[in-house]
Automatic annotation (TrEMBL):
One of its GO terms (biological process) is DNA-templated transcription. This is Xylanolytic transcriptional activator regulatory domain-containing protein. The keyword Magnesium does not apply. Residues 41-61 are annotated as: Disordered. Keywords: Nucleus. The keyword Nucleus applies. GO terms for molecular function: DNA binding; zinc ion binding. Residues 52-61 have a biased composition (Basic and acidic residues). It comes from the Eukaryota.
Length: 604
């Protein structure tokens, strides 16, 4: 047996006898698949006097073979046998039989190289990640990828219903790296899981159930957990990839009180972008290949910021005076016919077969950017509790109407002509409908703010123009919601849709108290049209499920509605719909809404 004072650094640090004097790498380091540098000590270096290694002790790893390491005990020329070497062929069998390491003995099982668990299209893990971090990530499923069938369906869903709304990456690079799977082109593990997560909300449930998940909600939770743990453990160091990943993680928003909601991830993306001077004015004059990607990423952050501010009546993070990124154009999108092997992987995806529908989806993103630029100006007036002046109201209403009037004809919203649409047409229709909902929500916010502190009474004979405007907008929103529900496209809408529906549903409940049979009947129909959409969103988003339960209890006069809406069906107590309503409604609307809800309870 070799003395403990002689050996490699790994064995000495763990008080393990080392056979470094016999061959390099030593037996322990071979088993653990780690480098085996000799310890630079007097005992381990040559004769112990000058520190130079003895040449006769240096062997290359190629000279080692299993056959050469096994010697007969009676062979006089054989070197002393390392005390662990006779167990070499029995370690894996013993481990399988025992199931657990023996206390007090070193774990002799060769540790798996986690890179070997990942397919060739995934980037290798950083070499400086500690072993305990890797083990923890493995227990959290971070190295577990969906099977090929589910993965391809999620990628197809991403191309149809996520990337058009958030074009934060180069779709062709992503798809070709996965389709080729030859190691020549690789993508980040964090970005891959973020793509998978963002697609789970819109995928057909049959694929989720086939993979063993009980619901899209359960799949969303698992895929988000994988992406989040990879982010928390700093597995990815490329800041552009981090920005892309966290922007896709803005699809996570489950409770109003969660501090790490989509606003949290958006602010992380903004911080990372600012740290690398991502919007340097001089950069936009260049003709680099990445210029279009940078512009799309910045406009994704800008539009998300404006929509969150509109929905939750919050201040914007990106100031207009600081935002100097030029508007996106068609030249900023990598529109192409994707190669046959990519189309085969995605089941011959209609949108990727040609450029026509890709161009339409890109144009919709450009129009969304224009709309959010208009919304940016009216966010300050609608956050003013005292209401906005007639001149400000007129200016922004006209700006919104001009945006709608200037939309290309193939992007303007129209009711579905047929209950059956092709795969590509479904993607286009959902985007058109969502743009129309944003336009209506912005117009409604202006009309509601125009009322100021006045109570809302649209059924009075002397109803004011803002009250009549609110009535018209809520009816239009219900029509759009009904079209989405008929085509089963509600689940394809982004999470911000929940916030767009809240003021509309609250208004419908107030209209139901009308003494006018026409207004009362229309309000009931519109309320349940919007409720069907909210309940469908509840199959994906916990917040939507909670809000749907709350409004059902409000319309039915359930005195325990707030408790029941707090998540008894989901097992997630603490979801407070009233807290969310206080963010999306004005003070006067809240006062009127609660008054009418009490009337419903008293009469039930």
């Amino acid at each position: 047996m070799y003395p403990l004072s002689v050996g490699c650094g790994y064995c000495l640090s763990r008080h393990i006898c080392c056979d470094l004097l016999e061959e390099i790498p030593c037996l322990t380091c071979r088993d653990y698949h780690i480098k085996c540098p000799p310890e630079p000590s007097a005992e381990a270096n040559g004769d112990g006097l000058d520190g130079s290694p003895r040449e006769d002790l240096i062997h290359t790893p190629e000279s080692h073979t299993p056959e050469a390491s096994i010697q007969l005990a009676g062979d006089a020329a054989s070197p002393p046998i390392h005390w662990m070497q006779p167990l070499d062929h029995y370690k894996s069998v013993a481990h399988d039989l025992l199931g657990h390491p023996v206390p007090g003995l070193p774990d002799l099982t060769p540790q798996p190289t986690f890179n070997t668990l990942l397919p060739s299209f995934i980037q290798k893990l950083p070499p400086n990640l500690p072993d305990e971090d890797l083990q923890f990530l493995a227990t959290k499923g971070a190295f577990s990828l969906p099977d090929e069938t589910l993965r391809n369906e999620l990628l197809k869903t991403f191309a149809l219903h996520v990337h058009p709304y958030l074009p934060v990456l180069d779709l062709s690079i992503l798809l070709e790296a996965i389709a080729n799977n030859n190691g020549e082109s690789r993508i980040s593990l964090l970005l891959f899981h973020a793509v998978m997560f963002s697609s789970t909300a819109s995928i057909d449930p049959k694929h989720i159930h086939r993979a063993g998940y009980t619901s899209r909600k359960a799949a969303r939770q698992e895929f988000f957990r994988k992406a989040r743990v990879l982010y928390d453990f700093d597995v990815e160091r490329d800041r552009v990839i981090l920005i892309q990943s966290v922007l896709l993680m803005t699809y996570w928003h489950e409770t109003p009180e969660d501090p790490k909601d989509f606003r949290y991830w958006l602010e992380i993306a903004l911080s990372l972008a600012g740290s690398i001077a991502f919007y340097d004015r001089s950069e936009w004059a260049s003709e680099t290949a990445s210029k279009g990607l940078w512009k799309r990423i910045w406009w994704c952050m800008y539009t998300l910021d404006r929509l969150v501010a509109l929905n939750l009546r919050r201040a914007v993070v990106i100031k207009d005076e600081d935002f100097t990124v030029p508007p996106p154009s068609m030249a900023d999108f990598n529109i192409q016919r994707h190669p046959p092997h990519v189309l085969r992987m995605l089941g011959n995806c209609e949108v990727l077969r040609g450029v026509g529908k890709q161009q339409q989806l890109a144009q919709m993103f450009i129009e969304k950017c224009k709309l959010c630029t208009t919304i940016s100006g009216l966010i300050s007036p609608i956050s003013n509790a005292s209401g906005c002046s007639p001149s400000v109201f007129t200016y922004y209403i006209q700006a919104l109407e001009n945006w709608q009037a200037n939309l290309p004809s193939d992007i303007q919203y129209q009711a579905p002509e047929s209950p059956v649409l092709s795969e590509g047409d479904r993607s286009l229709f959902a985007y058109r409908a969502w743009l129309e909902m944003i336009f209506l929500a912005a117009s409604g916010a202006l009309h509601r703010q125009r009322l100021g502190t006045q109570e809302y009474h649209p059924w009075h004979e002397q109803a004011s123009p803002p009250e009549r405007g609110i009535q018209k907008i809520t009816q239009s929103m219900a029509v759009v919601a009904e079209g989405l529900h008929e085509l089963d496209l509600v689940h394809c809408l982004p999470t911000t849709t929940v916030g767009l529906l809240m003021p509309v549903l609250a208004t419908h409940i107030m209209n139901i108290r009308s003494d006018s049979p026409d207004l009362w009947g229309n309000a009931f129909r519109s309320f349940y049209q919007c409720m069907k959409v909210l309940e469908k969103l509840g199959e994906v988003y916990m917040l939507a499920e909670s809000m749907a339960s709350f409004f059902q209890s409000a319309i039915c006069g359930d005195k325990d509605g707030e408790i029941n809406a707090a998540g008894s069906s989901t097992g997630t107590p603490g979801l407070l719909p009233t807290a969310f309503l206080e963010k999306v409604l004005t003070a006067s609307e809240l006062k009127t809404f609660y008054a009418y809800r009490e009337l419903e309870r008293a009469s039930s």
